[in-house]
């Protein structure tokens, strides 16, 4: 769930990278956010991700000093706001002291701990045809809209776990039920049965989104963050 300039390059059928800096496959340099859905009143695990002081992506806090987001969100000096549904106010802010990445997932080590509710990470992918929930601060229409100042959520239906994220890792593909991811939603979570199963990577801006699989990268997350 990233928010930067409104530059979009959709070079493949589902090629809109949902975040800031690039280097990723078919990576646009623009923001992407949830279209449709509803606003969220509480999300203590939510992390707004900033690059060089500008809001760039969404993420989740998974442990006192660790935030999970998308690799293509990493650019320049990183910081986060944790625990507020408003990306520009509330919660607590921390600088990022180190980053680690694998496929289109990234772990950011915070400069100091944050005490809040942390997300539970899934050990398996969600079932095909299951209803999942996505979150992010994002543009509320395909073009001409600004980012939402308040965190949004939408429901989606899983269609496959055989696609790839922006860097070639396993991804969960889903289609819109009540809304879909778009520019600015990069790094934001997808949940099934209360556990985070995915990290927003790419979307077409209409109905399809690909989220990097948490389960596929689970051992790596544990080796880096101890979670």
The structure class reads mainly beta
Main pleated-sheet profile: 6 strands, antiparallel, barrel
Q: What's the N-to-C terminus distance?
A: 22 Å
| Helix amount | under 10%
Unreliable spans are 1-15, 20-33
Largest sheet: spatial strand order: 11-12-13-17-16-15
Estimated radius of gyration? 15 Å
Number of E-type strands: 17
Strand-residue fraction?
A: 35-45%
Q: Kindly state the mean pLDDT as a whole number?
A: 84
Shape verdict: globular
The helix-strand sequence is: EEEEEEEEEEEEEEEEEH
**Total helix count?**
1
Oligomer: single chain
Walkthrough of the structure:
There is one protein chain. The protein is mainly β. It is 4% helix and 43% strand. The protein is built from 1 helix and 17 strands. It has one helix at 218-225, and strands at residues 16-17, 35-36, 38-39, 46-51, 54-63, 66-69, 78-82, 92-102, 105-110, 120-121, 131-136, 152-164, 170-176, 179-180, 189-192, 195-203, 208-213. The strands form 3 sheets. Strands 11-12-13-17-16-15 form a 6-stranded antiparallel beta barrel. A hairpin with a 2-residue loop joins strand 5 and strand 6 (66-69). Mean pLDDT is 84; it is low at 1-15 and 20-33.
Summarize the structure.
With 227 residues, this protein is mainly β.
Helix-strand blueprint:
Elements: E1 16-17, E2 35-36, E3 38-39, E4 46-51, E5 54-63, E6 66-69, E7 78-82, E8 92-102, E9 105-110, E10 120-121, E11 131-136, E12 152-164, E13 170-176, E14 179-180, E15 189-192, E16 195-203, E17 208-213, H1 218-225
Parallel strand pairs: 10-16
Antiparallel strand pairs: 1-16, 2-14, 3-12, 4-5, 4-7, 5-6, 6-9, 7-8, 8-9, 11-12, 11-15, 12-13, 13-17, 15-16, 16-17
């Amino acid at each position: 769930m990233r928010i930067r300039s409104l530059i979009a390059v959709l070079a493949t059928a589902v090629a809109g990278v949902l975040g800031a800096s690039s280097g990723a496959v078919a990576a646009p340099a623009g923001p992407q956010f949830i279209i449709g859905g509803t606003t969220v009143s509480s999300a203590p695990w939510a992390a707004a991700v900033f690059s060089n002081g500008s809001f760039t992506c969404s993420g989740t806090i998974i442990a006192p000093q660790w935030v999970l987001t998308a690799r293509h969100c990493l650019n320049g000096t990183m910081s986060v706001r944790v625990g507020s549904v408003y990306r520009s106010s509330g919660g607590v802010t921390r600088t990022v002291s180190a980053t680690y990445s694998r496929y289109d997932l990234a772990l950011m080590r915070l400069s100091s701990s944050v005490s809040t509710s942390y997300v539970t990470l899934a050990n398996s992918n969600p079932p095909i045809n299951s209803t999942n929930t996505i979150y992010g601060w994002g543009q509320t229409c395909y073009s001409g809209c600004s980012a939402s100042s308040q965190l949004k959520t939408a429901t989606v239906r899983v269609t496959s776990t055989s696609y790839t994220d922006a860097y070639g890792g396993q991804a969960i593909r889903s289609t819109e039920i009540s809304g879909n991811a778009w520019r600015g939603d990069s790094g934001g979570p997808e949940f099934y049965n209360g556990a985070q199963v995915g990290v927003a990577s790419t979307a077409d801006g209409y109905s399809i989104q690909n989220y990097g699989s948490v389960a596929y990268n689970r051992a790596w997350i544990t080796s880096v963050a101890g979670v």
